[in-house]
Amino acid sequence: MKKQAFFSRPPEEPSHIAGLQSDKFRAQHRIFHCPPTESKEYSQVPFDLIPISHNHHYSHEIDTTSTKRVHAQGLGPVAVYKKFPRFWRSTPRVQLQATFLLLMMGLLSITLALALCSGSALFPGLSTTTVSVVAGAEVYNTFDGPGFPACNAVSHVYRPSTVDEMVEIVKNASSQGIPVRASGNAHMWYDTMCSDDPETIIIKTDAVNRISDLELNDGVGSVMIEAGATFPQVAQWLHDHGAALGYTLVNWNITMAGAIAMGAHRSSLREDSQVSAAALAMDIINGKGELIHIEKDDSDTWLAATTSLGLLGIIARVKFAVQADYKVYANQTILDEDEVLGLNGDYDIFEEVSPYVTANYWWWPGQKKFHLRTYGVVPIETSGNAFQSTFSVTPFEGDTARNLLNAGQNLSLPNFVSEGIFFGLWSAPNFHDKQTDLPLLFWPVKGWSYDVLIGGLYPNQLPEWDYDLHGKTLELAVPVTQGQALLKRVRELFDEAAADGKAVTATYRSGINIKFGKPFDSFLGQTTERVGDVQADWSKGALMFDFPSFVPTTGDHHRYNEEWYAKLATTLINEFPVRPHWTKNTRSIFQQALKNLDQDSITRFSQVRKEFDPDGTFKSIVGEIIGVMD
Ligand SMILES: Cc1cc2nc3c(=O)[nH]c(=O)nc-3n(C[C@H](O)[C@H](O)[C@H](O)COP(=O)(O)OP(=O)(O)OC[C@H]3O[C@@H](n4cnc5c(N)ncnc54)[C@H](O)[C@@H]3O)c2cc1C
Fold first, then answer.
1. Which domain covers residue 494, as residue numbers?
2. Candidate of 251, 622, 629 to mutate for ligand 1, largest count of ligand atoms within 8 Å of Cβ
3. Does this model's pTM top 0.90?
4. Distance 227 CA to ligand 1 centre (A)
5. Do 566 and 455 belong together in one domain?
């Protein structure tokens, strides 16, 4: 008896199953449900089924001796097969031709399988030494790992090492109608990177990371970076060459191209802080696999490319503005919540934040306090080697925090205790001296620009998610002039939860992050001044309400008073003209917030998208929700 063993998904991945059951997928595939621990017989099933999904945890065994019957014994809830072509049930002659065709395809499959094993994958033009491949329909996870999908099902992950190889992969994929998404380091929160098409391939860009062509005259200039170069890589390279990035930064180990694609930003009302504001030119691999060079100008193409959501294609290279290296200080003060909310008299958030090159608040609702963090430039000869870390955690800290926060899954009090501890820790500088690795104890701290503005990981420490400290987040931008009103509304919702006996608070080590963005014009950016039916004045910039919260590792992973988080999001979307951050929100948030976006900008974006990618090779869930894939 010929047996074919393959694997299906574990039952605890309902989002994946939902993805496999999309209308389009169901139209193309036949799906057999195989309940856990039972065995089932399926009749009238053709023998040359193609198993689509697999996973290392669960298996089905298929008896393929019969063309009429498949015996599936499995532990997973679904086994999925490509629909058998109609002509198989046709005349004997056609069947003969089909058999010949299938034999040829079988031979081809073996050849391809061998190619896969040797690392060259589906695309023979690529060098076997430089392209590594992960094959099979798998979840592609975010930085948070298993349980946190960025794409629910992808068929391959390619890791090329040159722009030419990326071009080749896109060319081959698009000619076969295979969807493609680029990924840097998967530093995003939800399953919105790809569409739900399990044929999707990922081009992981991190090995395409050359940095070159630095030009610096009279303190300003540019540098050329490739798709996978991360902020810390570029910052270190520039520092070694006497140059630096400005304030168009994001936290952590993120690719600059990925940040440009998604309209990511730091926090400033005075300086440009959306990363794409510093892009001067880009090379984009379009839907035909052509490398298109575009330069900064007033065109619709540039307005689309500066928050492209990856829908124009893969940003392969960026010419990025830089400046002479500089030093900065960081300072932090504690404010009463009533003061920031304007309950003790006038408090103008714009006036407080706009003087600084970068500034943000961290809100601790359980403590009724805010931290205000501010940064400014100091003379280059100023001493100090401060190095910031937002995410470094020792094993003791990680384990203690996880245990405490898990205790708050079904009880409110432990969450308030955790928040109190986090607030105390966050009041001291989250900085070490870069040379000695000793903690800095007093504000302000000073050092080289990138080290102070962003920094990285302390030696011998791991980021918090490596201790199973994972989060969900919600990030919405509101005109800064309505920022205080939004924060007051959030306070009302906190109070309502407390009155209902289910008090909620901040469960993330840095509280609720309140950031800011100077206006920057791109069709889909969070800080554009373009408005549609929902009128609002964005001319003074935006306040971003970024509310990360701990996801318990226990039970069904719900957060305490889970339904309150949905109520919070819906209330803010309905009562304020808020716009979503493109990688920090769920599908539901995008659907709800769509009414706040400018339809004219969406239409013009859509036209540019069609020019770059007429067949929708780079489709994504976000693109589908906002209606630009038609
Ligand atoms: C710990 C952490 C801190 C963060 N801090 C900030 C912050 O301070 N400010 C902020 O605004 N955001 C922040 N983010 C969000 C982050 O900036 C974005 O999610 C960013 O897009 C992630 O970049 P990545 O390189 O990891 O890309 P991925 O997460 O791999 O991809 C994100 C999206 O960009 C697309 N994409 C990636 N590379 C390319 C490319 N070369 N061409 C076209 N499309 C591409 C992908 O297809 C996907 O849709 C943070 C995220 C994390 C996890």
1. 327-597
2. 251
3. no
4. 12
5. yes
